[in-house]
Amino acid sequence: MTGKTIAISINASWNIVNFRSGLVGALRAEGYRVAALSPPDPWAPRLAGIGAEHVAVPMDSAGVSPLRDLALLARYRRVLKRLRPAVFLGYTAKPNIWGTLAAQSLGIPVINNVSGLGTAFIREGLLTRIVTGLYRAAFRRSATVFFQNEEDRDLFVSRRIVAPEKAALLPGSGIDLERFAPRPDERAGDGSFAFLMVARLLWDKGVREYVEAARLLRAEFPHARFRLLGFLDAVNRTAVPRAEVDAWVAEGLIDYLGDAEDVRPFLAAADCVVLPSYREGLPRVLLEAAAMARPLIATDVPGCRDVAEEGVTGFVCAARDPASLAAAMRRMLLLSAHEREAMGAAGRARVEAAFDERIVVRRYLEAIEAALSRR
After folding, report:
1. How many helices (H) and strands (E) does the chain have?
2. H or E element at residue 100
3. b or e along 206-225 (b: 16 or more beta carbons within 10 Å of the residue's beta carbon)?
4. What percent of the chain is helix, strand and coil (3-state, nearest 5)?
5. What is the per-residue pLDDT across 138-185, written as a single tens digit (0 to 9) for each?
6. Are strands 193-198 and 167-169 parallel, antiparallel or unpaired?
7. How much is the pTM?
8. How far apart, in whole angstroms, are the C-alpha atoms of residue 324 and residue 313?
């Protein structure tokens, strides 16, 4: 697999299948082979279905072991030396750091995507300083570093992690507007009102605040349901323990729906989609919900505020503040159905104008062409 090959590396194959299939298809239409460098996880066999050739790169995506990271660097270098791709596209922390350093050591142009800053930048400390140094070393010779919101870009530029002329903005991973489209009403006809939070079950996503807001509201609004959809038992230092979720369900605070490959039926059955995250790159679930004309509630933090527009597509609230979240949810409950529908329609129009997947694909193709011309 040499010559016109593009290597894409992410810390999970499901991310490539769910969020990058449009880019993979566009690259293949341009005549490139696409090598997907990701762990040998259950989603890896599906990469062939979107036109990508899987190359297994085992990695401890949440680990902080220097020895394991150096082993990952060596693993990337062996793989990339064999593939000799025209360009390396990196996403998520480990590929963005160790995959980038390996590619650059071989003279392979690199385009990075910082889709979010993660726990290291939410809870600043020694780990933040270490990660900052690693990003600075990796991004020093990158052709382009894409960011998904202005705050993340400005933070990296101000800390001299990336040069301003290399930092560019993308509207997230883009939304397939045909796949995520308004559909016939699938909400319950029993008079209940369904809030839905979709996220990996991490404390930093605001799970605790969502549950506490439900506790504050359930007596006043007994017809309200508080649904939670997302992967449990995530390998992450801020993962919510399963016992906590079981206790909330037993108390009657939430309906835990497990995780799902296709979130569209759950979005269609929701009256309002909620994301009380502490910080995001550009939250995919809010874009998907808006594309399906659902009103939103999100925190007033980087990433979330780029999608949820106060009083237009939904409401915003303070981060880490259950009372503020409950107040926004109360406002949503007190709106008329017509007012909520207007918010949903405004969200759909916003996604159509600014977050179409075709915008992301075009910018990637332009960045690849520029990187190859400089090479």
Report:
1. 15, 13
2. helix 100-105
3. bbbbbbbbbbbbbeebeebb
4. 45, 15, 35
5. 999 999 999 998 999 999 999 999 999 999 999 988 999 999 999 877
6. unpaired
7. 0.86
8. 18
